[in-house]
Every structure is written in structure tokens, then in C-alpha cells.
Automatic annotation (TrEMBL):
It comes from Jiella pelagia. This is Allantoate amidohydrolase. NCBIfam families: hydantase (TIGR01879), PRK09290.2-5 (NF006775). Homodimer. Signal peptide: none annotated.
């Protein structure tokens, strides 16, 4: 629907910038691999179409475009006056992949607003003592492969030796999926950036929580990105006939999992600073008249404090082992993903703070991100910072995601202002 900016809106970002961003997010929302809902996973045909669309927008904004061998789309704006030969690069951007049945802002807003900021700076022919690159990562959500942050970990030189042999649900390896996409997995190491070339990586992203909305703020500073630990729990009991297996003779893997999952929930609710989620549950050989013998479930554990995260993971495993022993079910827990908490770099945060003060917010809010972002990986290769944008009801990872037009205008203005400010420091 044609939404108009309130006339009193103070932003200097031309209203058409916000509308252009909104129109592009609408266009990206149609690039999906599932009928009637937005799902775009790493190296899928939908990812390819999104790369084509975003490449066009990057070129229109005055950037040169390339795809690295981890399928990260990179737009480069180099207002190259020779005197700055060999200048360093400021990295902006976010991710193009989504969860299943996603919203249209998580990731994509950061990519499209970064392109809009470069477009504005290029039109003004802003002299800058650095080049700018917009990175559109392809795998921040980790939906397709039992890996995540693949693009940003490649950029940071932090891929694991077994990453390329990780398989998706169809048994396709990451290496083959990259080849099918037109990338060369044998040269993925060349995607690694040189630390000395980089000023930092700054990502604009929806908050995915309600702090800004409750405080009546459009934008907020991020103090750091919480680390996370993800594990798979595999339980083996004994398959039985539903009618002839006595209750005290059962080794039911599903009721065992159920007791574990409730114990996990109770522990997280009773522990400050800890959130835990069992997001997937698999039941092998399920049947209405079969006592379940094998169950798998995932655990996602977040705590900003690394020590709490480690301590609580060990406690969860101990809880589950005790429940499994009592129920005569075997248990295997395997960690498949972990990232430690990374602070946002103070100098970059201070520059963002100045920009918010210029917008009349000299008491800008600063909040931790309990959601993971590509900055978790990029922090290995350069300083990082993030700017959060208010989203309605904090809704995210769902079609209910929504950002108001004036907050999109504020995002463009803040990101453009940040680059200008950095350029004149
Ligand atoms: O899981 C996360 O926090 C992010 O949305 N991938
Ligand atoms: Mn997400
Ligand atoms: Mn995201
Ligand atoms: Mn808690």
C-alpha cells in the first residue's frame, strides 16, 4: 500500500529513498523457493535470483560487483581520487538468506539500505578517504546445511576443514552446491579478506525484539552480539508394540525427550541471562501403534556471558543423562555450532552515537543482540558494529515482520550519516 511519510518527518533522507528501499524489499520478498511464503536458502535458485536482482541495484548505485567463492555478493564503491591509492575499505551489508516462512526485513533491510546509502554518497560525489563495500552474505541463518555464517566465516578465514563436506537434507555437499551455483569451492580460501585492508564491518539490522519499540526509538546502538551454542541430542530407546508393551517395560525415546525438553525449558526460565530453544524434533519409524525407539532434537543455547553459556550447556547434558539413565534410554549430545560473544568496537560505536546525536538522540539506547549475526564471524578479521532498527512487536523469523517507512528513512539517513561522519574524522 502507498504509505506516505508524515510531513513533520525530520529526516533529511529524501522520502523516495525510503520508498525505493521498501519497493526493493517487496521485490525481494517475491524471490522465494516456496509457493506463497518467503523462504530463500543458501545456494538455492531463489538465492541466485536474489543475487541477480541485488547486483543490478548495486550497479545502479555506482558500484562494481563480484561474487566470491562462498557466494557472497560484493558491491564496491571506490570514489577513487588517486591520492588515496591503496585506501582501506569500510564494509557494510547483511545477509540475503532467510529462515522458512520468513519476514522481508531480517537481513535484506541491511543490504538494501547499505546500497541506498552508497547510491546517495555516489550521487553527491562525496570525497571519502576509504572505499565502501556492501556484502550480501548467503548463509547467515544456517537453514540448508548444518553450518551457518558460511559466507562471513569465509571472509574472515574461519571456515572449518569439514565445512565443504557438510551435506544438506538431500545429501548434497556444500562443495557441490557451491559448484552448481557457479562458485569454485577449491578457491574458497581466496574469499578471505586481509585485515590490514579493512576499517570495519557495520551492519544495520532489525532488532527482532521490543526494546526500541517500548522506548519509542527508531534506532539503537548494539553493545555486542551474543554467542550461541547449538547441539543435536540423539536418543535410542526400544521400539515396541503399542498394545503389548507394558508401561513399566518401555524404553520410550519420545517421552524421554519430552521430559528432557521440559527440563531444558525450566532451567532456562530459572537462569538469568540464559535462553534455550528446542526448535527441531525428529521421530524415526513413527507410527500410531509403535512405541518410539529413536528420537533426535536440536538445542539452541544463548547467553551473552560466555561462562554462563558453557556452564549451562554442561548442566543440560548432565540433566539429560540422568533422565536417560532412569529411563534406560541411550543419549548422544553433539555440538555442531558455537560462537563466543563479540563486543562491538568502541570507536565505531562512538561514531554511530554521534550520528544518532545529530538526529536529536544524544541519549541513544545501547542494547545487546541476543540474535546472531554475521558480525560474529567478521569480528575475527575486523572491528564490527551494528545499528538496530525498531520492528513492530519485535516480530521476526515470521511474515509478521514489519518496519515503518519512516524508520526505513531513518535507517538510510543514519547509515549515510555514519559514512560521512567516518569520512571526516
Ligand atoms: O539465530 C539467529 O540468531 C539468527 O537469526 N540467525
Ligand atoms: Mn534471522
Ligand atoms: Mn538476520
Ligand atoms: Mn532465562
Amino acid at each position: 500500500e502507498a504509505r506516505t511519510l508524515p510531513s513533520a518527518f525530520a529526516s533529511s533522507a529524501p522520502p523516495d529513498a525510503a520508498r525505493r528501499v521498501m519497493a526493493r524489499l517487496d521485490a525481494l520478498a517475491l524471490v522465494s523457493q516456496e509457493e506463497g511464503r518467503l523462504t530463500r536458502t543458501y545456494l538455492s535458485e531463489a538465492h541466485r535470483q536474489a543475487v541477480d536482482l541485488v547486483s543490478r541495484w548495486m550497479r545502479e548505485a555506482g558500484m562494481s560487483v563480484r561474487l566470491d567463492d562462498a557466494a557472497t555478493l560484493i558491491g564496491r564503491y571506490d570514489p577513487g581520487s588517486g591520492e588515496f591509492a591503496g585506501r582501506r575499505t569500510l564494509l557494510l551489508g547483511s545477509h540475503l538468506d532467510t529462515v522458512r516462512d520468513a519476514g522481508r526485513y531480517d537481513g535484506m533491510l541491511g543490504v538494501v539500505t547499505a546500497i541506498e546509502a552508497v547510491r546517495e554518497l555516489a550521487q553527491e560525489q562525496q570525497e571519502l578517504p576509504f572505499a565502501i563495500e556492501v556484502l550480501a552474505f548467503g548463509d547467515e541463518e544456517g537453514v540448508r546445511f548444518p553450518r551457518t555464517l558460511t559466507g562471513s566465516r569465509a571472509a574472515a578465514g574461519a571456515l572449518a576443514p569439514d565445512d565443504l563436506s557438510a551435506c544438506d537434507a538431500d545429501g548434497i555437499t556444500l562443495a557441490d552446491a557451491l559448484r552448481n551455483f557457479g562458485c569454485d569451492p577449491d578457491r574458497i580460501a581466496e574469499a578471505t579478506r586481509k585485515r590490514e585492508d579493512l576499517i570495519g564491518y557495520v551492519e544495520l539490522h532489525i532488532e527482532q525484539g521490543r526494546v526500541l519499540e517500548k522506548a519509542g526509538r527508531a534506532l539503537g546502538l548494539v553493545s555486542g552480539i551474543s554467542g550461541a551454542k547449538r547441539a543435536r541430542f540423539v536418543l535410542k530407546g526400544k521400539v515396541g508394540h503399542a498394545g503389548t508393551t507394558a508401561m513399566d517395560d518401555r524404553r520410550d525415546a519420545l517421552t524421554c525427550a519430552a521430559e528432557m525438553i521440559l527440563a531444558i525449558e525450566r532451567r532456562a526460565s530459572e537462569t538469568d541471562g540464559l535462553v534455550m530453544t528446542v526448535g527441531t524434533l525428529e521421530l524415526a519409524g513413527a507410527g500410531v501403534n509403535v512405541v518410539p525407539g529413536a528420537v533426535g532434537f536440536s538445542l539452541d543455547l544463548r547467553a551473552f556471558d560466555d561462562a554462563i553459556r558453557e556452564r549451562e550447556y554442561e548442566a543440560v547434558v548432565a540433566d539429560c543423562e540422568a533422565i536417560a539413565a532412569r529411563r534406560r534410554v541411550s543419549i548422544r549430545a553433539e555440538v555442531f555450532y558455537e560462537e563466543t560473544t563479540v563486543p562491538c568496537e568502541q570507536a565505531l560505536v562512538a561514531t554511530l552515537k554521534k550520528v544518532l546525536a545529530q538526529r536529536g538522540e544524544d541519549d541513544a539506547l545501547s542494547l545487546p543482540s541476543m540474535a546472531g549475526h554475521d558480525g560474529l564471524a567478521m569480528a575475527r578479521i575486523c572491528p564490527i558494529a551494528m545499528l538496530f532498527v525498531r520492528c513492530r512487536d519485535g516480530a521476526s523469523h515470521s511474515p509478521d515482520e514489519h518496519v515503518d517507512l519512516e524508520d526505513i528513512a531513518a535507517s538510510v539517513e543514519a547509515l549515510t550519516g555514519f559514512v560521512r561522519q567516518l569520512g571526516h574524522q
